[in-house]
Specification:
By secondary structure, this protein is mainly alpha-helical. It has helices spanning about 1-25, 45-75, 80-105, 110-125, 130-140, 145-155, 160-175, 180-190, 195-210, 215-225, 230-250, 255-270, 275-285, 290-300, 305-315, 320-330, 340-350, 355-370, 370-385, 390-400, 450-455, 465-479; strands at about 30-35, 40-45, 405-410, 415, 435. The chain binds zinc ion. Zinc ion binds near residues 410, 415, 424 and 427.
Length: about 475
C-alpha cells in the first residue's frame, strides 16, 4: 500500500520535472549550428535533448544487431545452434510470460484465457510437463472434461507428472461414479505416493465401499505409519475392518475362522458392540460361557445395547424366566439407572410374569423419558395385571407418537440404519454409525394420530385425556 503510494508519487514527480525541464530548455537561448555537406542545421536546446534520446535508442538497436551478427558469425564458423540460441532466448521469455499470464488467468477464474495462454506457452517453451498442468486445470475449470482427461493422459507419460495425471483421472472417474476404475487408479496413485493423505482417504473409502477389508486394513496401516491418523482412531477403525472381515468369512461358511477374527476385532476395540456380540457368539459356540459373559458385560458397561442383551440370553438358552432375571443382574450391575437396563429388566420381569416388579423397573422412565418401547412395555404390564382395555389402549396410543429412542445413526448425514454396518448406507462414510437418539424433529409421526382409530379401535376417546388417565392408573397401581 505504502509502496504503491511511493511509486505513484515518484511517477508524478518525474513527469512534473520532465515537463518543467522541457519548458525551461525551450526558453533557453542559444543552441548549436551543425553544417553537413554545406547545409546548416540550427538546433535549439530542446531539439538537442530529443536528438540525444534518439541516439541512445539507435545505439541500443545497434548493439542488438551486433549480438545477432555475432551469433551469425558463430553459426558460420560451425556452431550450429548459435542462431537458434539467440532466438530461443526470446522464445523462452515469451513462453514464460504466456505461462505466467495463464497462471494468473487460472487464479482469477478465467479458464478459457488460461487455456489459450497455456497453448501459447507450449508453442514457445516445449515443456509439456509445465503447460499440460495448466491446460488440465483450465479445462477442469471450464467444464471441458474431455480435454482435461486427454491432458491428464499426456501427464502420465512423464515420471514427474504421472501422479498428477493418475490423480486427475481418478477424480474424474469418482465424479462420474465409475468406482471400479477409480479404485484401480487410487491403488496406482497410492503406489506412486503412499504418504499422500488424500489418496489414502479416497483409497480407504473405495476399498470399504467394495468390501475389500483386507486392502482397507493395509491402507489404514499406511495412514498410521505416515502419521495422518492418531493411534486410537486407527485401532478403532482397524477393529471395524476386522469385524467386517469376520462377517464375510462367516458368510463364506467358515465359522471357526470367523470366530477367531471376531474375537480379534473385539480385543482391538472392546466397546464396538457388533464385534462384542459376534465374539461372544464365538465363545458360546466353543462352549466357553464364562468368556462370552465377560466380553458382553464389558461392552454393556461401556454402552448398554439390546443386541448385547440378546447375545447374553443366548449363553444359557433354556433357563427358566426366573433364573434369567437372576443371571441378567450380573450384566446390568454396573448400569442400574441406564434406560436400556431398566427396560431390559422390565422385559425379563414381564417374561417371568412378575408384573409389579416390571412396573417398578420402568415406572419413572415412562414419566421422565418416554419412548415407544418403554410405553409399549407399560401396556404389556397393564395387560398382564388384567387392567381395563382402555388403559392398555392408552399406553399404546402414547407409544405410537412417542420418540423411538436410540438407533444406529450416521454422525455425518444423520441417516438412520436398522442394523450396524461399517459404511453408512446413505453417504458411504466409513465408521460413522453411533447408537444414539435421532435429533428432535425426525421422530415425529405426523400421520400417527390420524391412524389411531384404525389401530386401537374407533372408540370416541379424546387423544389427549386418555394417556393422562392411564398414567394416573399406572401410578396408583405402583403405589
Ligand atoms: Zn451417512
Amino acid at each position: 500500500m505504502i509502496w504503491s503510494l511511493i511509486k505513484i508519487t515518484a511517477f508524478i514527480l518525474t513527469v512534473t520535472a520532465l515537463t518543467y525541464g522541457a519548458a525551461m530548455l525551450y526558453d533557453v537561448d542559444g543552441g548549436a549550428t551543425i553544417a553537413v555537406m554545406g547545409i546548416e542545421f540550427t538546433l535549439r536546446t530542446l531539439d538537442m535533448v530529443v536528438a540525444l534520446v534518439a541516439l541512445v535508442v539507435l545505439v541500443w538497436l545497434g548493439l542488438r544487431l551486433l549480438a545477432f551478427l555475432a551469433a551469425s558469425y558463430h553459426f558460420l564458423n560451425g556452431d550450429e545452434t548459435a542462431i537458434s540460441r539467440y532466438f530461443d532466448r526470446n522464445r523462452e521469455r515469451k513462453g514464460y510470460e504466456a505461462l505466467a499470464e495463464g497462471m494468473m488467468a487460472l487464479a482469477s477464474g478465467e479458464g478459457h484465457l488460461a487455456m489459450t495462454k497455456a497453448a501459447r506457452a507450449e508453442k514457445y517453451l516445449h515443456q509439456p510437463q509445465l503447460t499440460n498442468l495448466l491446460t488440465a486445470q483450465a479445462a477442469e475449470m471450464t467444464g471441458d472434461r474431455r480435454k482435461a482427461e486427454e491432458t491428464y493422459k499426456k501427464l502420465l507419460a512423464d515420471d514427474r507428472t504421472r501422479f498428477v495425471g493418475v490423480r486427475g483421472i481418478m477424480k474424474q472417474k469418482l465424479a462420474e461414479g465409475d468406482t471400479d476404475l477409480a479404485l484401480k487408479l487410487a491403488q496406482k496413485a497410492f503406489a506412486l505416493k503412499p504418504k499422500h493423505a488424500e489418496t489414502q482417504d479416497v483409497l480407504l473409502r473405495l476399498q470399504a465401499d467394495k468390501a475389500d477389508w483386507k486392502g482397507a486394513r493395509q491402507t489404514l496401516g499406511a495412514k498410521l505409519k505416515s502419521g495422518t491418523l492418531p493411534r486410537d482412531v486407527h485401532k478403532r477403525r482397524d477393529a471395524v475392518l476386522a469385524l467386517s472381515e469376520a462377517r464375510d468369512i462367516l458368510d463364506e461358511g467358515n465359522p471357526i475362522e470367523a470366530r477367531e477374527a471376531a474375537i480379534a476385532a473385539n480385543r482391538l476395540s472392546p466397546d464396538l458392540i457388533p464385534a462384542a456380540v459376534m465374539a461372544a457368539r464365538g465363545y458360546i459356540a466353543q462352549g466357553n460361557a464364562r468368556y462370552a459373559s465377560r466380553v458382553l458385560v464389558k461392552t454393556w458397561t461401556a454402552q448398554p445395547h439390546p443386541d448385547i442383551a440378546t447375545a447374553f440370553a443366548e449363553i444359557v438358552p433354556d433357563e427358566t424366566p426366573q433364573a434369567r432375571v437372576k443371571r441378567f443382574a450380573t450384566l446390568t450391575k454396573a448400569t442400574p439407572d441406564h434406560p436400556e437396563a431398566k427396560m431390559l429388566m422390565a422385559e425379563l420381569h414381564i417374561a417371568a410374569e412378575d408384573f409389579p416388579a416390571a412396573r417398578r423397573d420402568i415406572a419413572d422412565l415412562v414419566d421422565t423419558d418416554p419412548t415407544a418401547r418403554s410405553l409399549a412395555l407399560m401396556a404389556a404390564i397393564e395387560r398382564g395385571v388384567g387392567a381395563d382395555d382402555a388403559v392398555v389402549r392408552g399406553w399404546l396410543t402414547r407409544a405410537l407418537t412417542a420418540p423411538r429412542g436410540p438407533q444406529w445413526i450416521c454422525d455425518k448425514c444423520q441417516h438412520i440404519h436398522p442394523q450396524w454396518g461399517p459404511v453408512c448406507g446413505n453417504c458411504a462414510a466409513f465408521d460413522t454409525l453411533s447408537w444414539k437418539r435421532p435429533p428432535a424433529g425426525e421422530v415425529s409421526m405426523p400421520a400417527g394420530t390420524e391412524m389411531l382409530p384404525l389401530i386401537v379401535g374407533s372408540q370416541p376417546v379424546p387423544d389427549e385425556t386418555l394417556p393422562d388417565d392411564a398414567e394416573t392408573v399406572a401410578k396408583d397401581d405402583a403405589k
